[in-house]
Amino acid sequence: MANIREIAEKAGVSIATVSRYLNGTERVSKESGSKIQREIDRVGYVPNALAKAIFTKKSEVIALMIPNIVNPFFNQLATVIEELCHEKGYTLMLCNTEDNKEKEAKYIDVLKAHRVAGIIASRPKCKEQYLNCNIPVVSFENKIGDSIVSVSSDNYDGGRIAFEHLYEKGCRKILHIKGPDTFDATEQRYAGFSDAARERDMEVDVVNFKTDFNLKMLSEDLNNLDCKIEDYDGVFVFNDIAAAVIIKYLKANNVDIPKDVKIIGFDDSFISELINVSLTTIRQPIEELGEALARILLDEIEGKEVPKDDIMIKTEIIERETTLV
Ligand code: XLF
Question: Does ligand 1 lie within 6 Å of residue 183's CB atom?
Fold first, then answer.
């Protein structure tokens, strides 16, 4: 592939002029510019983006860390963020951390080496590394530290709404299938749900899932539960994908949903509408979350004023067949 020296020779200008033209840092005369561009087009020269990012201390790449690419909620969130970054001239690099601290740490090192312009860290685990990476960062859900703004849904309130809905539907033997302890968001959902139950003088049973994405692991979690889901009349599951696994299980055991057991998920990702029986769920405002994450990061990259306080966006219930009687 042609290099910058050959372009300079063919265009009859110096290497420094080509370099200035490519980096757009200083003025290059119109005449030299068109000669250089003609040569670039002729040989199909592709500039080295990394070298440019190092030289100009500016990059057009934003990294999105997501905990898993199979969960539809994160597909949808990534789509919103990608569109906004694209509109502003940035390319999105997707890093699938699988909630694995080592994998996430490795990604942060690679992103630093590639001088990315900023990072959106979803459900981050490597807090120290983000705090010390010298790259603008915004987090989704898990809080990293005071200097990094975090964006999330109002998970606590969402948990409260879920309880009230089951209660109003007449459920009195209620189970909450809670997310892994390391997820700040699902801990908040659990807190809201239990507080609302306590205020109604009701006890709810709580069991723990260890994951939210790998279907095999979700099924293992289900088989290891020390309770029978069909013994309850209302179940609040920490997210839609886990709720879909529960629905599949109950249907396989000939349980009538919603007559015998009512179910609520969390997210309102596209599967909640598609599955049979369609799922009542607490809607996370995916568009607004994605927009807030992208806007705050882009503003910070561009040196604009950004909010100091964390952003929390309201949730609402979307009623579908799993509680509709
Ligand atoms: O981290 C939480 C758990 O799962 C996230 O918001 C989700 O609800 C996405 O499915």
Answer: yes
324 assigned to some structural domain = no
Q: How many Å apart are CA 26 and CA 204, to the nearest integer?
A: 66
Q: pLDDT confidence of 303, banded at 50, 70, 90? A: very high
56 in any annotated domain? no
| Residues 10 and 67 reside in one and the same domain | no
CA distance 15 to 38: 15
Which ligand 1 atom sits closest to the C-alpha of 267? 8
Query: Which pTM was predicted?
Result: 0.87
Structure tokens at 98: 């699988």
> Ligand 1, closest atom to CA 240?
10
Give the Å distance between the CA of 267 and the centre of ligand 1.
7
Q: With respect to residue 26, please indicate whether it lies within any of the assigned structural domains.
A: yes
Residues 136 and 163 in one domain: no
- Overall average pLDDT of the 146-161 stretch: 97
Summarised one tens digit per residue, pLDDT across range 70-127 is: 899 999 999 999 999 999 999 999 999 999 999 999 999 999 999 999 999 999 999 9
Verify that 165 and 278 share a domain, yes or no: yes
Question: Are both 86 and 175 inside the same structural domain?
Answer: no
CATH of residue 193:
3.40.50.2300
Asked whether residue 275 is domain-assigned, the answer is yes
What is the span of the domain harbouring residue 14? 4-47
**Any ligand 1 atom below 6 A from CB of 212:** yes
- CB of residue 141 inside a 6 A radius of ligand 1: yes
Query: What confidence score (pLDDT) does residue 216 get?
Result: 67
> Could you tell me the sign of the dihedral formed by the alpha carbons of 243, 247, 252, 258, in that order?
positive
The domain tally of the chain equals 3
| pLDDT for position 224 | 81
The angle, 0 to 180 degrees and rounded to 10, between the axes of the packed helices 286-301 and 72-87 is: 40
> For 174-192, b where at least 16 C-beta lie within 10 A, e where not — what string?
bbbbbbbeebbbbbbbbeb
User: Measuring from atom 9 of ligand 1, which residue has the nearest CA?
Assistant: 73
